[in-house]
Amino acid sequence: MQSTARVVVIGGGVVGVSTLYHLARMGWSDVCLLERHELTSGSTWHAAGLLPLFNLSYSVGKLHQYSVDFYPTLEAETELNVGFSNVSNIRLATSQDRLDEYLYYAGVARTIGVEVNFLTPDQVREAWPLCETQNVLGAIQHPADGYIQPADLTQALAKGARNRGAKIYRNTVVNGITQKPNGEWIVSTDKGDITCEHVVSASGNFARQTGAMVGLDIPVVPVEHQYIVTEQHPAIMERRAKGLPEMGVLRESDASWYMREEAGGLLLGPYEVGAPACYLDGPAPNAEYELFPDALERLEPYILSAIERVPAFGEVGVKRVYNGAIAYTPDGSPIVGPAWGKKNFWLNEGHSFGITAAGGAGWQLANWIVEGEPSIDMMGVDPRRFGDYAGRGYLVEKNEEAYAKVFTVHYPDEEREAARPLRQTPCYDRMKKLGAVFGSVFGWERPNWFAPEGYELSEADLDKPDVILNHNHPDVDNEPVREKWSFRRSNYFDFVGAECRHVHEKVGLQDMSAFAKCEISGPGAESWLDGLLTNAVPKKVGRVSLSYLLTSRGGVRSEFTVYKMAPQRYYLVSAGAYERHDHDYLKKAMPTDGSVTFERLTTAMGVLVLAGPRSRDVLAKLTDANLSNEAFPWLTGKTISIGAAPVEALRVNFIGELGWEIHHPIETQNYIFDKLMAAGAEFDIKPFGIRAMVSMALEKSYKLIPRELSVEYSAYESGLDRFISLKKPGFHGKDALLAWKDKGLANAFVTMEVHDVTDADARGSEVILKGEDVVGRATSGGYGWRIGKSIALAMVNPAYAAEGTELEIVILGQRYRATVIADSPFDADNTALRA
Ligand SMILES: Cc1cc2nc3c(=O)[nH]c(=O)nc-3n(C[C@H](O)[C@H](O)[C@H](O)COP(=O)(O)OP(=O)(O)OC[C@H]3O[C@@H](n4cnc5c(N)ncnc54)[C@H](O)[C@@H]3O)c2cc1C
Fold first, then answer.
1. Left (φ > 0), alpha (ψ -120 to 50) or beta: where does 289 sit?
2. Please, which of 401, 504, 554, 813 could form a disulfide with 737 given CB 3.0 to 4.6 Å?
3. 206 CA distance to ligand 1 centroid (A)?
């Protein structure tokens, strides 16, 4: 075995081998793969081989699309047949919400470039004559979809990789990984050590054990997944004898199962509620081609529903049941990208649709390793989207939930229940008492909106269709149901409107403690931050600026509020959901000479947002600080006292009203909360939530990662011009950004008014049309209560970005007139913010 390599890939399942293949294809031939037994002997060999294109995540959708396009090309390259059956995939809808999901998905698919057809029940029967179509409202079909032979695919990828110089060592167990002071890695195996520049962990169900070798708590815990293969059925054999095409993959989404033909019989794969997490301590050292005993009793309702839909399934005996471990993460998407805190250690783990995702995940990870960046937005699969809170107990609860909800309707406002309420800020109970309906981000509980006292939905309000998956509202023991999820305006719509109007007319209080926070300090802090971020770093104590971290290509990676709180001390605030991501980039980019220090403050500091025209009046009652515009202008901060509590008050907010973000030691939160509520009583202070904030941010055309801001869009395309300082000597990504601009920008950020919407606002991912041409995609959308308009933010072809341009947007299958309007339709001059 070789003793050095540029990259060592651990794991010879389809994912590891695809990563190896793509590294070699990008010209890195000094790469090798280590597999403890035989290729595919982990999870890959027993997969059903389906390649579903359907995915509401832009990142995952793109990875799947790449795979389905790429796999059929392997045969010509390697002369090995990958067993790709392009039989198409039909997903049934038996409820209006399910149809809405498909209509929404059609926008995602069209913007990614995936072909989707809508079928009537008759067309379903034509394609799948053994399928009964009672209660079917419609279906979607992916013509490019199908299934593949996972082992053949892996072997073809392996041959392609070897042909390009890569080496594969089978029966070689990795038992230790260490990093040398110079950054090189040593991968130790039972056959000797390999010193390398990069390590890729693609170890499937062993992910947590591989992670433990380098001190990483990898958020992957597998769940049991079963599928059943029947004996041959005469009707299918007859179809075969007649040379009729295979009926394709059938998915009964509302009953949570898939079915396809298999060797003249049928294969049924349910995603059942109650499937247990497994391999909590990893598979046994000698595990190989491992299956668990079947647990058919769990599948009973799904089998009955399958027989009802496809009676032929009940007419033949079961030939074999496969019950294997399927790797899961808390949100069901894989983790592909850099490991946090470890330079040149990469993860390609947590794949629950690994046969489908392997091609794309290998392609993008190879790009990331070789080029330093992925070429598509990978935020949806970034390993750093989870934090330390995602430990073993959390993973068991969340991953079982993610598995059980593979087929639930993925409402944009869905808030899942498992492992909650985990991270509570001190004012959680106070907010709850005030009617907070919570959502969760990065494990934190955050009020989404506030329901009036005693408000709850009845069974009739919930209007649930009679299907196995009835999940259109949060289901928490001993809690009333107060919201119903939807793709359309739902029951909370007017309550959110009332919150927006209240903040606009009076004053509101919001808990934003989930923000990611850190302090960057030291003699080198200012020059380092200046050379890293796009905007000029504040030079005067008390100044606040908004600044961006770009990719080396000039796309946008992170957004930071930068506050100079003292000489050589900067306080950085960024999105709560990206704490690990943002902090990892900062820490990895820091100079190693000790001139700059990083301190995480996320859980040390709470944030209460006081906003609205009366916010100054409220605060004035509690502090002797001069709050006048002259003494405390917009985009400045100060240490002030609120009663006896010292706080950092920043005159910024995300909603476009007069107001302060009050950053405080977390243990003083309730003291401050009570003071503000008491002082605000005479001004009718009320709490407001995330949904009101999002609506008001839309009216200000504020941009979000990874929507309007993404590694795929240049910072200029996203309209960040005024946050980019070309005066300073440089910042990370500057040359590439300017080169991108010179080459020409393919997209332009616009704000649009959507006309005649009565029921469903844009959500992001909708197609923007000029005539029949797709000229852009919506990135966010919703209703603006202060301007009384339905709005969408979008990235469009620059030819259609001028104010007044008339376009159309497709929302849930309906075309609406959409006019490009000036950015910040509410208070374009920032009069309220500067008041
Ligand atoms: C019943 C079932 C049906 C499925 N059906 C589908 C489907 O239809 N479509 C789909 O897309 N997906 C399906 N999946 C999921 C799919 O099987 C996985 O997502 C995929 O196989 C993951 O591939 P992988 O390479 O990540 O992991 P694996 O195939 O498990 O490969 C990981 C490899 O790493 C090796 N390894 C681990 N630790 C070490 C070490 N220390 N040293 C050396 N080697 C090591 C292991 O031996 C293993 O071979 C199914 C899964 C199950 C259980």
1. left
2. 554
3. 9
Q: What is the pLDDT of residue 577?
A: 97
Cis before 633? omega within 30: no
For the residues 545-564, what does the mean pLDDT come to?
97
Helix (H, G, I), strand (E, B) or coil at 322: strand
Supply the residue whose CA is at minimum distance from atom 14 of ligand 1: 47
Residue 225: count other Cβ atoms within 10 Å of its Cβ. 26
pLDDT of residue 287: 81
> What is the rounded CA–CA span in Å between residue 716 and residue 701?
15
Tokens of 612: 């609205």
Structure tokens at 480: 């009333």
User: What are the two backbone dihedrals, phi and then psi, of residue 308, each rounded to the nearest 5 degrees?
Assistant: -65, -40
Helix (H/G/I), strand (E/B), else coil: 123: helix
Tokens standing for 707?
């929507």
> Would you state the structure tokens that stand for residue 340, as one six-digit string?
């946090």
pLDDT at 338 over 80: yes
Q: Which residue, by CA, sits nearest to atom 27 of ligand 1?
A: 204
Shortest-distance atom of ligand 1 to CA 41? 49
pLDDT per position as a tens digit, 354-386: 999 999 999 999 999 999 999 999 999 999 999
Q: Do 373 and 736 meet the contact criterion of CB atoms below 8 Å apart?
A: no
How many other C-beta atoms lie within 10 A of the C-beta of residue 436?
23
Give residue 233's pLDDT.
98
- Concatenated DSSP letters for 424-449? --TTHHHHHHTTEEEEEETTEEEEEE
Q: Measured between alpha carbons, how far is 49 from 249 in angstroms, rounded to an integer? A: 11
From residue 414, alpha-carbon distances to 441, 474, 476 in Å are 12, 8, 13
| pLDDT tens figures, 593-609 | 999 999 999 999 999 99
Confidence check: pLDDT of 466 > 90: no
Cα(324) to ligand 1 centroid in Å equals 10
Please give the Cα distance from 131 to 804 (Å, whole number): 50
Who's near 295: CB < 8 A, 6+ residues apart? 224, 226, 323
Strand arrangement of the beta sheet that strand 556-566 belongs to: 544-550, 556-566, 569-574, 516-521, 597-600
What are the distances in angstroms from CA 10 to CA 174, 197, 283, 342, 582? 7, 14, 16, 16, 27
SS (H, E, C) 199-229: EEECCHHHHHHHHHCCCCCCCCCCEEEEEEE
**Residue 581: both structure tokens together:** 């991501």
Quick one: tokens of 332? 């069901």
Q: Which helix (H) or strand (E) holds 774?
A: strand 773-784
User: Distance (Å, rounded) from C-alpha 24 to C-alpha 29?
Assistant: 5
Pairing between strand 444-450 and 436-441? antiparallel
Residues in the chain: 835
pLDDT tens-digit profile of 675-700? 999 999 999 999 999 999 999 999 99
Residues 115 and 86: beta-carbon distance below 8 Å: no
Q: State how far the Cα of 2 lies from the Cα of 793, in Å rounded to an integer.
A: 53
Q: What is the pLDDT at residue 288?
A: 82
**The predicted structure's pLDDT at residue 285:** 84
pTM over 0.70: yes
Amino acid letter, 96: Q
Tokens 């979000």 -> residue: 704
**pLDDT band at residue 470, thresholds of 50, 70 and 90?**
confident
Given the structure tokens 């002082």, which residue do they identify?
679
Pocket of ligand 1 (CB under 6 A): 10-16, 34-37, 41-44, 46-50, 173-174, 202-206, 210, 225, 227, 322, 324-327, 351-356
